[in-house]
Amino acid sequence: NKVSIDQIGNYNITQVTQISNDNIITVNANGNNNSITTEQTGSKTAIISVSSDNNIVNLSQKDNGNDYASIVLTGGNKSVNLTQSGSAGHSADVTLSGQPVNLTLTQSGSTQQNYSINFNCATAGGCSAIQVQQGN
After folding, report:
1. Based on C-alpha coordinates, what's the Rg of the chain?
2. What is the CB-side half-sphere exposure of residue 38 using CA atoms within 13 A?
3. What is the pTM of this model?
4. Pairing verdict, β 103-107 and 35-41
5. Which of 48, 49, 79, 91 could form an S-S bond across to 72 if both were Cys, CB 3.0 to 4.6 Å?
6. Cβ neighbours of 29 (radius 10 Å)
């Protein structure tokens, strides 16, 4: 299964559930209220890019390992909840710019876990918390 979604402007809401092997989701959302919720099982890849406005991304990848997520949020209020579970093969690349930010990244399952978080915080008082939990 492969799903590609482009949303431009206004009240963007995307909900995708994929259950099988070799699932690929690509979502591009530009502007306004942005909310993206995806759940994948089997071998999975999610590439999500959101620019501006209220940004919320909830991504859940479960079972069978081979999980890859790339999330880029530029501008807006941001909130990312990324959960990868199952039997290893976890990898996540998250890029955030602008603020506020609220990121929770959880990777579980039998060992291998890689992540990269790039965040540009330009506030003198600091930016909101980023939480990462790996392992069982």
Report:
1. 14
2. 28
3. 0.84
4. unpaired
5. 49
6. 27
Q: Edge-to-edge strands of the sheet including 44-51?
A: 2-8, 23-30, 44-51, 67-74, 90-97, 113-120
Place of tokens 């909101």: 128
Side-chain half-sphere exposure of 15, counting CA atoms within 13 A? 0
Token pair, residue 82, equals 């990324």
C-alpha to C-alpha distance for 39 and 105, rounded to whole angstroms: 15
Query: Residue 53 carries which side chain, given as an amino acid letter?
Result: D
Q: Residue 76 — left, alpha, or beta (φ > 0 → left; ψ -120 to 50 → alpha)?
A: left
> Which of 85-89, 92-96, 97-101, 118-122 ranks highest by mean pLDDT?
92-96
pLDDT-derived band of residue 17, with 50, 70 and 90 as boundaries?
confident
Return the bridge partners of 1, or none: none
Q: How far apart are CA 19 and CA 43, in angstroms?
A: 9
Neighbours of 39 (CB within 10 A): 19
CB 134 within 8 A of CB 110: no
Residue 66 DSSP class? -
- Cβ neighbour number for residue 19 with a 10 Å cutoff: 12
